[in-house]
């Protein structure tokens, strides 16, 4: 009987061995995709792409078993050779080839030159050829940054006593009401795709006190802007026993500090590839919604048209204001008008026209919406009634409150938007692996 | 201007302080939900439920500001008192109450007694009252075990050089073909919910070499069994540059070893609450599909009806065989028949009726399907043609192979099934927070 014991002996060298000193001037083996071939006549430089980065191998005619003319870009190969120090090569190393095994061969040449440092092609082309364009080193690095943000979110919250949950994406009704829902038939019953895990994460606060989820959400919004996706990844948390809605903002600030530190340490390679400036999040200003409008109106000489709404241009100016006045890329805008928030938002007891809620703006773009929720059953029922809404389909959600819930609140962060602003992209599609918008359902 | 600096001063004591020695015989403050009240006349024991566990507080008539008759189960309260050593209390501590702040009050009594150690109620009732039934300590512990498995999957794979990806759940077509797909209209275009991230994770192997995703998958299967859900969480990975499909099995074994160790250490509390036996995964037997059928047929005197199919009873018997003969709860069954695997499965070059693939059985139930995939464009196109399938809707997937892909393979693990078998549940709905089946769309 054969047994798997969890180990596997690879006959290739690790990246650490290749860029380290122990194997210098000795035989080494590497595998990778042929990223580019520069044929100089007597020698050719074959750059291999691996998950860790690019590695230079050198082809000298008389030494190898395969003719240089047989080698093509996008082949995957295993190369045996002698490891040399070479200042001009990436990581100061090159492998002088003795033997090549071809692992796979492409059927056609690449449709775009991915080996350029910056991929000079339209967003449309990038998205149409996503599996190819992401082979570009800069392009793929964006998604390592995105990974870091997700990882930081989870690891920080685990450390703060949160429990990870998985809530259903198929449901009978949406958390935000009837608009913007993708609808379909679920075994002959009407069903929708979840706009957010809002109801479920609240229900789970009664069980675990603090919960988070990182998963997809679906919005059938007919927006076709640079900031909207119809499916995106939401970083959600919800926490009970809060003293104030500001405790939620403190938790988000803690996450951002943890994330920026993770980027500087474990993801330093990608930060360098993308030449990112990591923003200072040691302290983030918080300003009331009405005050922010006033400040911007005065400084930029802009008339306040509607005191209960915030236009995208105003959002951008608030971002600009806090950058100029306080040097901060981030600003919490608090106390949003009640009309602009869902029924479950907790109104400010001091002025019920406003809520104990906030948005977090990053370089003038909303990346988070959060706040305290109503935890009292009767207050919640009253609010539903006041809004002329029906309780239908919310029975189990409401039952949760009927049977006791602590004061609580939470937030949702748009992962692609956070990544976009951090990297300085103009279009959120740049920071989504396979974006879904009104016109794009493939690849 | 106010600033958030990522810290928040809580006026309550941490769990570590409460169960430690430094605060003994001193004033301490705790918050929690009233899990149960045992009124003995002169004193009452009020057990608080927090995310960390249960904590005993003692109500003595003359000392507190709130009458015992005002207190109810499912209230949330903040309690100030004196911390005492008390052997018979959980964690050897109790808080003698001086002052109570009521944070929230339920509108109605609980519909079930959640304070019993084992929740004695039907699965149906548990699911109908999910936000309440999960407040039971045993019930919620199941989902901490599930969290541990997800966390272990990610952390182990990060350590093995994998990149986390987020792939779309809305698409133009499914990876496994037309059956079992939830269909809907996406801005007037026909769309489906993803059955698996299969195509996307393969495409991303060409970019990151090794990728994983933990996310929902959707199957419109008309099964109503104890083992099937119509939406579940899939732990997926895909890895390039494999030497053999057995390397994938080695990676899964490594994950399981990491997970079992994490359970024994960081999740020891929940392991103890559920009285789990952590299975030995130091080595997992691997047996060919045809050999496994033969072994079971001989030992249990069972006729082989169809040499190219495995019935659920046969699966269970294979599990039993390897438990009896090798003491293993797990067994890899390899070389599944080609007819039973999707078109992208790599056939065994030595016998094309079988594939370089495997299932992992855990106590006789399939929890993983994996294997090597076809990486050569022409071979893939041929296989599609041989099966009489169309390339329509697979253009970008196929383009990926046209432009070069390394040898690769991967797997998908059903998170709820893995949790179910580990805990020893009979029904997979027990280990899904909010299960979706043919009859259940709520809560």
TrEMBL record, chains A, B:
Keywords associated with the record: Aminoacyl-tRNA synthetase, ATP-binding, Cytoplasm, Ligase, Nucleotide-binding, Protein biosynthesis
The Gene Ontology biological process annotation of the record reads: aspartyl-tRNA aminoacylation
Q: Where is the Aminoacyl-transfer RNA synthetases class-II family profile domain?
A: 143-443
Matching entries from NCBIfam families are given as: aspS_nondisc, PRK05159.1
Write down the Pfam families for this protein, in alphabetical order.
tRNA-synt_2, tRNA_anti-codon
Annotated positions for site Important for tRNA non-discrimination: 90
**EC number(s) for this protein?**
6.1.1.23
Source gene?
Answer: asnS_1
Q: Which InterPro entries match?
A: Aa-tRNA-synt_II, aa-tRNA-synth_II, aa-tRNA-synth_II/BPL/LPL, Asp-tRNA_synthase_2, Asp/Asn-tRNA-synth_IIb, NA-bd_OB-fold, NA-bd_OB_tRNA
The record's section on HAMAP family has: Asp_tRNA_synth_type2
Which family is annotated? Belongs to the class-II aminoacyl-tRNA synthetase family. Type 2 subfamily.
The source organism is Blautia wexlerae
Give the record's subunit note: Homodimer.
**Amino acids binding ATP:** 219-221, 227-229, 366, 414-417
Gene Ontology cellular-component terms listed: aminoacyl-tRNA synthetase multienzyme complex; cytosol
Positions bound to L-aspartate? 176, 219, 369, 373
GO function term, MF aspect, one: catalytic activity, acting on a protein
Domain of life of the source? Bacteria
Compartment list: Cytoplasm
Q: What is this protein called?
A: Aspartate--tRNA(Asp/Asn) ligase
* Task of the protein: Aspartyl-tRNA synthetase with relaxed tRNA specificity since it is able to aspartylate not only its cognate tRNA(Asp) but also tRNA(Asn). Reaction proceeds in two steps: L-aspartate is first activated by ATP to form Asp-AMP and then transferred to the acceptor end of tRNA(Asp/Asn).
Q: Where is this region: Aspartate?
A: 198-201
């Amino acid at each position: 009987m054969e047994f798997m014991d969890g180990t596997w002996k690879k006959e290739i060298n690790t990246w650490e061995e290749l860029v380290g000193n122990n194997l210098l001037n000795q035989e080494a083996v590497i595998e990778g995709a042929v990223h580019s071939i520069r044929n100089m006549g007597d020698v050719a430089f074959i750059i291999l792409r691996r998950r860790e980065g690019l590695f230079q191998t050198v082809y000298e005619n008389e030494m190898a078993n395969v003719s240089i003319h047989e080698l093509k870009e996008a082949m995957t190969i295993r190369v045996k050779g002698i490891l040399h120090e070479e200042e001009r090569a990436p990581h100061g190393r090159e492998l002088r080839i003795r033997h090549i095994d071809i692992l796979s061969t492409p059927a056609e040449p690449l449709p775009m030159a991915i080996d350029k440092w910056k991929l000079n092609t339209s967003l449309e082309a990038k998205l149409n050829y996503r599996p190819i364009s992401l082979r570009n080193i800069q392009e793929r690095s964006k998604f390592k940054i995105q990974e870091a943000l997700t990882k930081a979110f989870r690891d920080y919250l685990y450390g703060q006593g949160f429990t990870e949950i998985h809530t259903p994406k198929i449901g009978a009704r949406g958390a935000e009401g009837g608009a913007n829902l993708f609808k379909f038939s679920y075994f002959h019953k009407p069903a929708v795709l979840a706009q957010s895990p809002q109801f479920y994460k609240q229900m789970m606060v009664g069980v675990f006190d603090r919960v988070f989820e990182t998963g997809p959400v679906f919005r059938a919004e007919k927006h076709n802007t640079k900031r909207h996706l119809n499916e995106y990844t939401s970083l959600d948390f919800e926490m009970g026993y809060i003293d104030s809605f500001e405790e939620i903002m403190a938790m988000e600030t803690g996450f951002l500090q943890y994330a920026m530190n993770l980027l500087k340490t474990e993801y330093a390679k990608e930060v360098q590839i993308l030449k990112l400036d990591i923003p200072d999040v040691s302290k983030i200003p918080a300003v009331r919604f009405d005050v922010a409008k006033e400040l911007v109106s005065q400084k930029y000489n802009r008339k306040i048209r509607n005191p209960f709404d915030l236009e995208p241009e105003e959002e951008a100016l608030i971002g600009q204001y806090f950058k100029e006045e306080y040097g901060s890329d981030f600003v919490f805008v608090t106390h949003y008008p009640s009309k602009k928030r869902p029924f479950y938002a907790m109104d400010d007891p001091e002025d019920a026209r406003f809520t104990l809620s906030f948005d977090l703006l990053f370089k003038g773009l909303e990346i988070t919406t959060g706040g305290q929720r109503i935890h009292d059953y009767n207050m919640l029922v009253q609010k539903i009634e006041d809004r002329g809404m029906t309780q239908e389909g919310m029975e189990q959600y409401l039952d949760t409150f009927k049977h006791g819930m602590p004061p609580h609140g939470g937030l949702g962060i748009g992962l692609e938007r956070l990544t976009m602003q951090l990297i300085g992209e103009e279009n959120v599609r740049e920071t989504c692996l396979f974006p879904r918008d009104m016109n794009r359902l493939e690849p």
